[in-house]
Amino acid sequence: MNIKKYSFLPLVLSAMIFSACGQQPAATTTAATTTTAAVTEAAPETTSAPETTTEAATLVDVPEGAQYSDFRSGMPAGFEASDGWCNGSMFNVTWRKSNVTFNDGKMQLVIDNDSKPKGGIPYSGGEFRSKDFYGYGRYEISMKAIKNDGVVSSFFTYTGPSDNNPWDEIDVEILGKDTTKVQFNYFVDGKGGHEYMHDLGFDASEDFHTYAFEWHKDSLTWFVDGVEVHKVEREPEKLPQTPSKIMANAWCGTGVDGWLNAFKDDKLPVTAEYEWLVFTPFES
């Protein structure tokens, strides 16, 4: 696929997230935050999407100029599995490359007991992430979530202090305690608190469905199976502007029972599955 270059607008630096059990900071967050902050704009470096190709026919109609990845041939070019560190805070997993698997033409993100626990973190989780950074565009994935108290199955964009950037994030999160709903959220310069819970009308753990968001300079819009279900305008809200990594992960929480319910580990391993990913860049 052709590499497409485009420009974005970034933010100022935000709060730093450090690993609780390793030297490398993890580039994920999903906590609810309740304050907002002003945004300072500056001209960023021009970035380009990594090239990803597949010889087989695509599993979904792909718009012209979009980057398409599926998991029938394993890890797609330009992506990697997080390995060997944990986010700390509410994340009760260490990311393990072995928890990102590819079987039956799909990617599996696995939560399990950690075979080599460290730092008081007893569980392992799977996280998939791009190596490059992406800006305004449409992000869409086909996934099947985990049904299990205390876990999150996700698809999101993120950048932060570990990338020498402000903490900007756009989230699609399915909470295992109730997989008939999906939670949308976003962070701007480390400030969240924009959670919106949408009733799906189906159980997200029973089959694959598509979850998408369109990231514009002046709006964020989320979609389920191609139908618009939630939109946020730039005014009066501040919206993410910093080019970010495309990510997905599965993890269990600690200390957030009011949000996720207490984690039940009697059925481990538990697995979220993903079929394909499409990113369509916008010109502005």
Report on this model:
This protein has 1 helix and 18 strands. It is globular and about 45 Å long. The protein has a single domain, classed as Jelly Rolls. It has 284 residues and is mostly beta strands. 1% of the residues lie in helices and 41% in strands. The chain starts with a strand and ends with a strand. It has one helix at 257-260, and strands at residues 5-6, 47-48, 67-70, 79-81, 93-95, 100-103, 106-118, 121-130, 137-144, 151-159, 168-175, 181-187, 196-199, 209-215, 219-224, 227-233, 245-252, 270-281. The longest helix is centred in the last third of the chain and has 4 residues, at 257-260. The strands form 2 sheets. The protein has a 16-stranded mixed β-sheet that branches.
Question: What is the gist of this entry?
Answer:
The chain is mainly beta and 284 residues long.
What's the CATH architecture?
Answer: Sandwich
CATH fold name: Jelly Rolls
Secondary structure: helix percent: under 10%
Number of strands: 18
Which geometry do the CA atoms define?
Answer: globular
**CATH class division:** Mainly Beta
**What value does the Rg take, in angstroms?**
17 Å
The largest pleated sheet is described as: 16 strands, mixed
Instruction: Point out poorly predicted stretches.
Output: 1-20, 23-54
If you average the pLDDT, what whole number results? 85
β-strand percent reads: 35-45%
Distance between the termini: 21 Å
Number of helices: 1
Question: How many structural units, i.e. domains?
Answer: 1
Order of helices and strands: EEEEEEEEEEEEEEEEEHE
- Which structural class matches the secondary elements? mainly beta
